[in-house]
Design brief:
Blueprint: H1 11-35, H2 40-50, H3 52-60, H4 74-97
Helix pairs in contact: 1-2, 1-3, 2-3
Length: 98
Amino acid sequence: MPFQFNLGDGAGGLVVFVILLNVIVGAFTAKVASEKGHDGAGWFFLGLVLGLVAFAIICIAPDESVDYDYEPDDKLALSLENIEKKLEKIESELAEKR
């Protein structure tokens, strides 16, 4: 007789299967949430209760670890302006030599 994996008989086995499936989905939901800068533990419980719905929501949720309102540093902007001025000066000196 071939090996059979049986989670139980009747509805009890189905309940155990659904709980195990939701624990796995909750773990994946928590992993994706923590990679995106969200609370992994909270999203684990949402994944446990809501299953694939929570996983789908966190997949389309924005990444909290990315700063979308990034503005360049003033020092960086000033150094870029200085580089541009130096390049213009070098170009004009080269043009004079020709």
